[in-house]
Specification:
Length: 100
């Protein structure tokens, strides 16, 4: 039996394929009013995220994954600092006076 020589496959020219332009719709940069996405600076969201990441960190620590636990603790610390920043900025805006 005689084997026939295999023909080399030609690969498509990627340079000419990359030069063809595709039309994509423009990305929306502004969200419409009344968007369901909450504001990032909302103190309730910061506290909620802090509690969530703290719980995730504790769960990972219990399973023995110290790396993942540390990652979640760092996320929780970020939101903890955000809560402190929100508290200090809101108290600075309110006048301090005596309650009578």
């Amino acid at each position: 039996m005689k084997s026939e020589p295999t023909m080399a496959r030609t690969r498509p020219n990627t340079k000419t394929m990359a030069s063809t332009t595709r039309k994509f719709p423009p990305a929306r940069k502004n969200r419409p009013l009344g968007s369901p996405r909450a504001q990032a600076g909302d103190p309730q969201n910061a506290e909620r995220n802090y509690q969530r990441y703290l719980a995730l960190a504790r769960a990972e620590a219990l399973t023995g994954d110290r790396i993942a636990a540390e990652n979640y603790f760092q996320h929780a610390e970020h939101y903890f600092r955000s809560m402190g920043k929100n508290n200090s900025s809101s108290s600075a805006q309110q006048p301090i006076g005596r309650q009578e």
